[in-house]
Amino acid sequence: MSNVLQNRYEFVYLFDVENGNPNGDPDAGNMPRIDPETSYGIVTDVCLKRKVRNYVQMVREDQPPYCIYVKEKAILTNQQKRAYEALKIDKGKTAADEIEKARLWMCRNFFDIRTFGAVMSLKEYNCGQVRGAVQMNFARSIDVICPRELTITRMAVATEKEAESQSGDNRTMGRKNIVPYALYRAEGYISACLAEQTGFTEDDLTLLWEALINMFDHDHSAARGKMCARRLIVFKHESKIGNAPAYKLFDTVQVKPCEGKPPRSYEDYKGNITAPSDGPLSGFPGVTVQNLL
Question: Strand pairing partners for 287?
Fold first, then answer.
């Protein structure tokens, strides 16, 4: 693919939730994920990547070169079969060079493979493995969170048997888990060297920024409540290798915890955020900053 990425990037991403569950933990009854030692909230990288995938699938209609490999109810073997059929490869006689051709075909046609990578070394239709150009850390809340488990009532039942057992009262009780409010911070890395291997392009990068900015607006549900992207701060290096350590760039973005009261809106944090302005980053030659949100 043309226009392959030529610069290293890092980014800091701030998003928040109000009266919702940003990322339920199936090992804890779907309660919001939390660090048990500190009580800070957690949102996994997998959760954020899922929302990016859903946005790209929606706006690009799952068409090449923006197909989505890991999508809801997908059968991955069938996805990889498409490469073998397109390249006319016999699945029973795959040599290393044919697997490599299949891997490159998958990278060319699937946005999330060239972006996040994939393990495609299945027994059938082996397409090898791809290490993605884009990686993200777990997001962590700025302040400790105190999840709530609320009882909710539905004024209906599912079956006649349930209605008879309640003598016609017809109520169903349930639970809903929420975080009253939390601001989360995630950090990400984009490797130009890996982009060369996967074919991740400048156009893909633009689409990634678009997804991070807009994806929550197309992901609303009763469970997740109000979720919003608040800040997206991008560090661009002059070279593929990079001009400064990522951790030092991340340290230039500071978000202080709230003091005196539990936070209940983004307004409680606005004066607590310190971030570099657009342009060359002072003290870091070869690095420029873009505040995309």
Answer: 237
Tens digit of pLDDT for each residue in 179-218? 999 999 999 999 999 999 999 999 999 999 999 999 999 9
What does the alpha-carbon distance between residue 140 and residue 137 come to, in Å, rounded to a whole number?
Answer: 9
Reported as a single tens digit per residue, the pLDDT across 103-138 is 999 999 999 999 999 999 998 999 999 999 999 999
What Å distances lie between residue 73 and 69, 78, 162, 224, CA to CA? 11, 11, 31, 21
**How far is Cα 211 from Cα 52, in angstroms, rounded to an integer?**
6
With bands split at pLDDT 50, 70 and 90, how would you rate the model's confidence at 165? confident
**At 45, is the secondary structure helix, strand, or coil?**
helix
Ramachandran category for residue 225: left, alpha or beta (phi over 0 → left; psi -120 to 50 → alpha): left
Contact 137, 187 (CB under 8 A): yes
Going by the DSSP 8-state scheme, the letter that residue 261 receives in this structure is S
The domain ranges of the chain are 1-44+138-147+178-293, 46-132
Helix/strand/coil percent split, the chain, to 5:
30, 30, 40
Place of tokens 């973005």: 253
| pTM reported for the whole predicted model | 0.92
- Answer yes or no: are the C-beta atoms of 183 and 16 closer than 8 Å: yes
Residues whose CB is less than 8 angstroms from the CB of residue 261 and which lie 6 or more positions away in sequence, other chains included: 268
Phi then psi dihedrals of residue 200, to 5 deg: -70, 125
Model confidence at 2, in pLDDT bands (50, 70, 90)? low
User: From the CA atom positions of the chain, what is the Rg in Å?
Assistant: 22
DSSP of 103-132, one letter per residue? HHHHHHHBHHHHHHEEE---SSS---EEE-
Residues in the chain: 293
